Amino acid sequence: MADNIGEATVDKTIAPEKPGRREFLKNLPVLGIAWGAFAAAIGGILAGTLRFLYPNVLFEPPQQFKIGFPDDFQSGAVSTQFKDKFGVWVVRNDQGFYALISVCTHLGCTPNWLSNESKFKCPCHGSGFYMTGINFEGPAPRPLERAAISLADDGQILVDKSQKFLYEKGGWDDPNSFLFFA
């Protein structure tokens, strides 16, 4: 017993062993997932920051555009070829031309030209407009708006949507709302 007096007994449950190579390799997939999640979080923050630096830009069609020569249009007809690209219908009657903006005055839907019925019909709530743009059925409170129309220097018809003419304010009497052409 005397030999054991100077020796201290070490309890192995208090001081654990250093992990070995095998223990490290067992934890490697968990470390990979943790680092992957960290990298994804940092990437998301970086992507959000870069997206903030490039704001939303709405590309709109030009407000002024040429639509062709007067002889290209048939009298008594509505040209619907500019509805999708520029948002206007061009109407030619016996006196000349006018451009109707293709936005319903009720809630802003885009009406369709029904040539067999000779009217514009809004698919949203059923508003109907004559070829002149005057409303006659449905909830639309007022006629369609006209855009300024003129003859450009090269002889083509120029439509300017930045100038709008309202029927109820006497705008259709303005000479810029109609292109007289014999």
Brief characterization of the structure:
The protein is α+β, with helices and mostly antiparallel strands and 182 residues long. It has 3 helices and 11 strands.
Binned, the helix content reads: 10-25%
Number of helices: 3
Compute the average pLDDT.
Answer: 84
Give me the strand/helix succession.
HHEEHEEEEEEEEE
CATH class of the domain at 64-180: Mainly Beta
Task: State the low-pLDDT regions, or none.
Answer: none
The CATH H-level homologous superfamily of the domain at 64-180: Rieske [2Fe-2S] iron-sulphur domain
How many beta-strand elements? 11
CATH architecture of the domain at 64-180: 3-layer Sandwich
From the N-terminal CA to the C-terminal CA, the straight-line distance is 132 Å
Question: In what range is the share of β-strand residues?
Answer: 25-35%
Q: Largest beta sheet, briefly? A: 7 strands, antiparallel
Based on CA atoms alone, the radius of gyration comes out at: 37 Å
Give the overall shape: elongated
CATH topology of the domain at 64-180: Rieske Iron-sulfur Protein
Structural class: alpha+beta
Question: How does this structure look, described?
Answer:
The chain has 182 residues and is of the alpha+beta class. The chain has a domain of 117 residues: Rieske Iron-sulfur Protein (3-layer Sandwich). Helix content is 23%, strand content 26%. The strands form two sheets. Strands 1, 2, 3, 4, 9, 10 and 11 form a seven-stranded antiparallel β-sheet that branches. A hairpin with a 5-residue loop joins strand 9 and strand 10. The longest helix has 33 residues. The radius of gyration is 37 Å and the shape is elongated.
